[in-house]
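TEACHING EXERCISE
Course module: macromolecular assemblies
Task: Read the component lines below, then compare them to the predicted structure of the full complex.
Student: A.B.
Group: 4
Components provided:
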Amino acid sequence: MIAYLIRRMLYAVPIVFGIVLITFVLFFVVNSPADMAKMTLGKKATPAAVAAWVRAHGYDQPPFLNLKEEGVAKLTSTLFFQKCARLLVFDLGRSDVTDRDIGQEIRRRMGPSLAIALPTFLLGMAINITMALIISFCRGTYLDRWGTVMCVLLMSISGLFYIIGGQFLFAKWLHLFPISGFDWGAVSAKFVFLPVVIGVISGIGGGVRYYRTIMLEEIEKDYVRTARAKGLGEGTVLFRHVLKNAMIPILTNAVMAIPFLFMGSLLMESFFSIPGLGSMTMTAINAQDFAVIRSMNYIGAILYIVGLLMTDLSYTLVDPRITLGASDTRSLYGRPGWRDVLKILGGFLFLAAGAVGIWQAAVYFKDQPGLRTVIFSNGVLAATLLGSGAFLLHARRSQLWRNAWRQVCRSRLAKVSLAALGAFVLIAVADSVTWRDVQRPAGTAENGNGPTRAVLAEPQSLLDRLCTPLAAKTEKTYSAPMARALLAKETLEDEVDGKVVRRRDYPPLKYPGWHLFGTDKTGQDVLFMTLKSVRTGLVVGGLTTLIAVPFAIFFGVLAGFFGGWVDDLVQYIYSTLSSIPWILLVVCFMMVFGRGLPQLCVVMGLTGWVGLCRVLRGETLKLREKEYVQAALALGVSRFRVLARHVVPNLMHLVLITVVLNFSGLVLAEAVLSYIGVGVGPDTFSWGTMINQARGELGRDPVVWWNLAAAFVAMFTLVLPANLFVDALRDALDPALRVRGEGE
Amino acid sequence: MPLLEVRDLRTYFRTAGQPRRVVDGISLSIDSGETLGLVGESGCGKSLTALSIMQLIPRPGYVAGGEILFKGRDVVRLPGPEKRSFRGRHIAMIFQEPMTCLNPVLSVRTQLLEAIRHGRPEGEARRWGGAGAEEIEKAVEALRLTDMPEPAQKLSQYPHQLSGGMRQRVMIAMALACRPELLIADEPTTALDVTVEARILDLLRDLQKRLGTAILFITHDLAVVSEMAHRVAVMYAGKIVEMATAEALFARPSHPYTERLLRCRPSRVQRGRRLETIQGVVPDPRDFAPGCRFSDRCPNASASCRDVEPALGQIEPGHVVACHLYAERRTPTISAPSPLPQESAAAPLPQGGPLLYAQDVAKHFPIRRGVFKRVVGHVKAVDGVDVAIPRGTTLALVGESGCGKTTLGKTLIRLLPPTGGVIGFGGANLAALDSRALRRFRRDAQIVFQDPFSSLNPRMTVEAIVEEGMLVHGIGGSRAERRERVKHVLESVGLTADALVCYPHEFSGGQRQRIGIARALAVEPKFLVLDEPTSALDVSIQAQILNLLRRLQGEGRERLTYLFITHDLGIVEYLADEVAVMYLGRIVERSPTEGLFDELLHPYTRALLSAIPGQEMPGRGGRIRLEGDVPSPSNPPPGCHFHLRCPSVMPVCREVYPPVTDLGRGRMVRCHLYGSRGG
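Instructor-supplied answer key:
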């Protein structure tokens, strides 16, 4: 046991080092200290001020090697050592903004954070598992069917909605709990209660559904039949036999949730003003406090690694088959030779070039707003169409896909979902087809001025043009849905009998009854904004997937198939990436690269392939043992051809399911990120931005609810069909893959 | 009153259209202390009959009619809680897969105690916490009943720490914990090795004698049934077609199905002849034709067979048959076995050196541990094997599971790189081949796998599967030409050109195995490794595949050379020219097939043969029951690997691994018993 612990610690060392390196590269190489200073001080800061800031915060050292110093100091008085390597001994340094000692600050704020996160986590687990057990107990009944539908519904609701809605309902309307705040002692319960309840509720949908799947899988197993044949009651079978076996995946899931506790508390703490780590991070993000973000990254990663260690240890409690440290993947088909390595490298370079290409394009178009909108949106459109076209071609050829399609079509729910998704895609496509009108045609050299260039109008999409009646009808400020007057009273001047009469009243709208969803602060029509946001949501979901999936397939398949050192390398990469809480990782990237839709997609894509990669690696490990793979090798088919013909096609169903599932996750994540202020820029239409802008107005009286509601409803109507469709898809694909004729 | 009486039981599965009539009106009865064997091919509804009696029908199955009377009470109509307490207490069941049927995360003690506590009288207080000493004693007693070695220690172990045979013993102990009146054994030995199977069968017979339990014994293996059962019921497509005492059934099989089933087993008698087969497959339980369900496959079918369903009729006391032959008093042509056609004389064996030749081949898998993946040991799957297979002949490789047969087969065609030794193929040294030459070699040596379900890519059409090798080796220039060749190959394995565009899941197991063979044949190999190609198939389908393999060997310009890996000695006797017996990574005996069965040399071979159920052993000595299991190949015992289980062990066996003793006429053995004889 002790030896195992020590060995695991040793494993963690390279991972921790990798994390430190990533942080370093991100914050000091990609983004120089001078950039940081400019971000803090503003774009117009003088060089002297920048230099002073850099010096004051100790960023004025060379990155790796200080030639000016003597001896060890050559290495120690460098940025890497001072700002990053010291993290290794938990010397977190001082905040860039408040100059407080970060270590102390974290220790102080740990308590409140845990007071929220721990009860949420434990209570949530308990409730989810119980409900999943109840549902699997009643499988096949109405309770099961409706329970599952309820789960999908709950899953499709944005986490932000739970918080905002819950706060509004319990605290503002019912006055059951204080809206926010925190205190120690007995009173803390009243502050903690609401966040915990909301946290638990927001996790029920996904949790119960996941656990139910695991348990149903276990219930199908042979040993359950044996237990029943012994005459055991259904309760004993479920609680003693099924639950204990199901604990293995449940535990994994629980540990994966540990870094997400972090993320959840980020939102929760800032909404409820809990003085914990989450709100500290929030403040740091808003204040561009790099030192704090760095430290939080590191702490998060360490927590994750400790959590992983704890899962491994708890496995041995649950599963007697697992002996610690005995896992290794043999390289079944020989190690890759140098030619293979070259091929692998070539493949990786191709992928990386793709991502870098998108990135560079994004950076290039960043400074040319007009061109950017036109080319970027049409480019995205083309890429998406090409991608889905390629997939359709592949699917048409394969009978399995056609069968699956037929099965999907048999379910009415799936068809409705597909239609809804199609409608969204149509809106997004209409919003992507963008061109610029010619305002004034190019002049000829008539009047001696020489030929003039044509003047082009601002780029406008098809959707803009279709919705001109909505977009153009702006009001002064807020108005309720279908209202005839503004929300706020104004001093109006009327002319009665030639006299000017002043009175305070609600001024009538310019276009009364036109605004189906009301207008926002600047008088924009909310319906129009919601429609415009569709494209952002779909681009975030789609483009990100397009970047992430090739990486996931590439790494997952290689690691699973070749095993050996390839597997070690890939596992190292993804454990390092996944040990930093994903939201923080994205926040870091976004802080360094700036806000914007393309940036967001690239960043989420480059960090989001890890989960799928893990799944694909596991599946490839199973596939490579299949006899048809060996048969192909025995025929002399080369290993890469075997991968392309036999392995990857048999993974596509997993890829598709994960992609659609991730899609809804990404749409929701975009809202959260934009809400935090690291997502798309404030000038881009998105549901996240809408929520962000509307949130402050909940305090008004009468309440401005329509723009929030519109954003949430729109997100819900996009995510729900996607989730329902995934279910239908999974049902259709899974039995087709379970080779027929296994049973009777 | 019989202990169990099943009357006209019908168990259906709900589907979108017609229900699947898996069990369609069967009646049977079992008396106390009796063993009824229920035999039939897969898909006949045997298991579902058992699960119906247990009332454990999987979804979406349901009892559509009939009654199951246990001591006069209808089990189907018992209220829920009573149904549950009925299970285990009065009727218990053991299942086929001992690997998956025990809960992997609960200890043997927990699982046994569950069963024991279930059997306590109702009034006794339920106690959940720790087990009392008295209960532990009961559990040990239950294990001891099954001849489990060291039962007290086994209690604290988990299923994965036990071997297959031991797990099955735990299952039996659990099932008998409450002393049920009826034990249902659903293929209890199918997943076990033949030596282990023999011991489990002995155990079940012994327990029945001691406890007087009635047994419903379900199996596809007629040989097992002939050893176990007092009476036998033969099931076909959801119906019982024949039922008689075991002696009567095996002496006078009367239904054409039973008769054929008995004759398509390969054995020594049939050597050199075509095996009898049953054409076609079991009909789909969704649309049964109105007449006799066997009529499509029956050689004696008449018009009335296709229209009218035959009822069970008595042909002699206690022997009932559902066949029109007897009702109409037609002469059953089958009773006089038609003379089997002698195969056309096989082409003379080509002369010359062996096609494949291996010396001292080893395949070790390293066991790695720790951060730096230190090698802490080796699994010596193949450990110094000499093989020579002459052109055009069949070498059979036999042995229990885990002895390294499959690894050797894969190593010989370099699907796995050998750890040591020399492999020569047609004069070339395999180890020295570069990647291009290796690819050329792949054309000459092919492999057919055991599992027809996982050996075909579910996402490829049959054409793409068969064509793949041709593409690699550039066989057949144009697309059209290749297609012609694929068609030709498919025809040669007995499939039509319609199969080209179909996907593997549209075929039955036997047909899939044909596709697997076609894939291997498409590149025109000289050498074929057949890795248990029929062990996943029903006996009638197995006969078809064996006939096919025999025919293919004689076809073509050059006779094919086979390495036939199997654990079925019947197949060996029928098919092989030479036999090599493998034990723990080494070949312990090699002999031409003729000589082997006349005089068994190695004690292991003797034990292996005597374990085969249903075999009479005149002049071969009594039954030998091997104790213990095959030791782990990562840590083989010192000296002769077999000495721990050997009945004629000598002191020298514990120290020295026996050298090869050549006995002439192509026979060699590795055993100290023959050390003095060798030259």
